[in-house]
Amino acid sequence: MLALEIDWFFRDVDAHGWIHIATIPVFTGVIGWLINWTGLIMLFSPVRFHGINVPGLRQLSRVLPRKVQEVPGFLQGGIGWQGIVPARAAKMGSIAVDKAIAKLGTPAEFYQQLEPDQIAEHIVSVFQPDMPKMIEDIMAREHPSLWRDLPRPARQAIIARVQAQLPTVVRGITDEIGVHIDQLLDPKVMVINHFQANPALVVRIFRDFGQRELNLMVAFGFIFGFLLGIPVAIVDHWFGQWWLLPVLGVLVGWTTNALGMWLIFEPPEPRRILGIKVHGLFLRRQDEAAEVYAQIIADDVITLERIGDFLLDGPRGDRTRQMLATAMRPAIDQAAGPVRGAVRIAVGRQRFDNIRDAVATEAVDRTITPFRDPVFSKRQADKIRTLVAVRTKELPPRDFVEMMRSAIREDEWMLYAHGAIMGFAGGLIHLAIFGVGGR
């Protein structure tokens, strides 16, 4: 019976009908390719919001449906576009910390991997040449007459004692940072803030290791669209209604984009469907992706420079400065040596304490300054990269998918809606060129 139906179908189609039918899969294939190609543009470009501000839109947007509020720019009162991935950079940073970076261990364990002893040695080597001038400047500012009246050998003796104390002081400081690092350093805030300020980094994470898969997704857009166009052509010929192609184009466009996203991220574990082994394209190269991801994190996100900046200038910077200054004061007392009591009497207790506190406070900034040395930070980056790469490779595939997909998931409906709109437009264009099909 089925053979008779198929034979009757082929006999029923004339030459014009064959052209009409044959062009539908070609159209849906081209539209599928365009959908996935432009979908990638929507995902990654532009990095910053481009659009216009509309008076009153900010207030109006708060009463609109939640999905509409998610469109980049609406809550800020603008009409325009920002790439979905860069628009959600902060969220991806948050999930990246929860899924991967947090698995490195506590901030204290992470800090120990950076080899504090080496950091201390570097601080001493950088700080020591500046120590004489710093002491000269502080003494000249805090008690110019005392410093002026001291013989040069006495001045040099004081400077020498302070310099001799420096390695012990610095090791104490790096140890103190290690003890309190859990309270001083918040990797999650650090990563989120950096991703939010530099959304292009999130785009790089996708592009640097996933460009091959993204290109393949675009190519599959044509294949999916073409295959989906075959039943569309049969249905259109069978019923011959003018509205069929635009309506079915919506389904084809939506499905093509959904299949494209599925192709990249699903399934997280290898699985056989109809005897064919399938595995999310990104997941097939998790180890390679981990290396790329770790390199970006180590070079641009969690660097020794940025750790130093966060410790002194971050939300807990005041606490860091206070802690370091408190740790340095006893060492400065010891540097004064046996003349400490005499000096305290000569200049007064308050003045002596002011001098000691000034040395400690100024030394804090200079002590952390070597953290910001780009050459030294670059050397330490290899340790950070290795740590992040190992942990990312160890992630369960589902967690790895979530880490990468988090920047897209809540906005995927926009991609599907974009596919549906383009599918609808493709149906109208085919209708305009070839007219209504049907028997």
UniProtKB/TrEMBL annotation:
User: Organism's domain of life?
Assistant: Bacteria
The protein, known as: DUF445 family protein
Its transmembrane ranges are 18-44, 214-235, 241-265, 413-436
Q: Which UniProt keywords apply?
A: Membrane, Transmembrane, Transmembrane helix
